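Me: Here is a favour to ask of a fellow structure person. Could you put it straight underneath, so I can go through it closely?

Assistant:
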Amino acid sequence: MIDWPIDPARTALINVDLQNVFVEGFDISATDGPDVVQRLNKLSRVCRDHGMMVIHTINELRADGSNRGIASEVVTAYLQSTGTNRKGGITAGTDGAKLHDSLEVEPSDVLLTKPRYGSFTGTDLDLILRTNGIEAVIIGGIATNVCCDTTAREANQRDYKVFFLSDGTGNHGMQGLSAEEIKAATLAAIRLAFGQVLTVDETIAKIEEGGQEIVAAE
């Protein structure tokens, strides 16, 4: 399995969709959403201390429905068939679409609204990263197997190094599979073809080690 170092000057953290609907209180919320937020708050603080870019994505669709598309049809049909209530879901202006109150957002952070699962689709994320000399991304957030996974695959296909957080991502169970089983399958696919899987603490250690190497070189 791949084992890359982390260069803080060329790496950004992407916190994917830490919104109310995905964090807690909704039928589709992650089983450990609040804990995931706190782990990512911890990592975000370390990243900022090392001068790294911290990006928070917000999965949001227009209230007038003009950009909903096929994905919304699929999700709506699935939720209706399972009797799942998403209370407004990711529609702009609803409580569900707002970032969770426990998420720490600083003025230096980048807020990125995205209309699809992947953080690159329909956004200027690639432009932001390349403008700032970013070559690698750390991906955390919710859900492990949907928006985080899609973002990791998009980043890999654009030749960014991908660091994917095992305990900094969360999801819920579905179709007879537990949250743990779904996450395990997602992490296995990431390890095989898309990047390196790390815990938050392992990632922090790599960031601090990379920062020390830069100081020593200077």
User: Anything to note?
Assistant: Helices lie at 20-23, 33-49, 69-82, 125-131, 144-157, 179-193, 200-217. The CA atoms of residues 212 and 218 lie 10 Å apart. Residues 214-218 have pLDDT under 50 and may be disordered.
